[in-house]
Amino acid sequence: MHPSRFRLATPVLSLMAALLPAAVRALPAHAPQARHAPGLATLINAYRAAPGTCAGMPATPVPPLAVEPALSQIHIATGTFLEPALERAGYPVEHAEALFVSGASEPAEAMQALRDKYCTRLLGDGISAVGTIRVADGWHVVLARPEKRELPQADGIGEETLAAVNAARAAPRKCGDEQFGAAPPLRLNRALDAAALSHSQYMAQVRYFNHQQKNGSVVGDRALRAGYRWRTIGENIASGQRTAQEAVEGWLDSPGHCANIMNAAFVEMGVGYAVNPARGTLYWTQVLAR
């Protein structure tokens, strides 16, 4: 087993980094949050349904926002980063923003202030959920677009991955500084599928992104346990991609993974993915062997 076969996926393969800008607008520090007030969320949706005007201009109605309890349960203070706060609350997002109005004790007062200061953001079409938080000197409103968690269909995932890999192998390709000629197509092997799936399930379960498991197991060990007696073997892993096509594209953009895919010594492959239930992150494993 050549050491180069065990390179980790590069950071560019992580989807999570693209979810939200790193920092949120600094907000004034406030006393601990008090009660959640559904009334303000209701008023926001009423405004979206019949906005009339925004900033002195006619405004078009937009669909209502889902009132999400998780958005009303976070604590927002100076320097709060919304994405990790919402993830800890069990609500991963693609986008989130927090609005603050002070000096309003009742939902109607807060709504008027929100209309005056933030009407364009309240009417944004890039948001789909809202939460409101009452604090000692005002209100926080959290607007968000939740992370999409559609999973690829398990049926056909091997064939889809194989097609993308064989399309790449069909033509010469440069992987980093190394030039590869076209390579013969691979074929699927069910034992290698089992080895790949077992490692993806392990990574998803323990949230541990590495070729070597904590018990010391590496790809060759997992293939033998699955019943595949190999002469040469390699492995690609990735985390965060939502489709097989995205996973293969990410591997081809990484020199070490690309070299595995283009290696003519490999004649068979297996693939498997698993999802971490808490965060919805997908973990992919591809095993290539002869």
UniProtKB/TrEMBL annotation:
Gene3D superfamilies: CAP
Xref: Pfam families: CAP (PF00188)
Leader sequence segment: 1-31
CDD domains hit by this protein: CAP_bacterial
SCP domain segment(s): 162-287
Keywords of this entry: Signal
Keyword Cytoplasm: no
Protein name: CAP domain-containing protein
Organism: Pseudoduganella dura
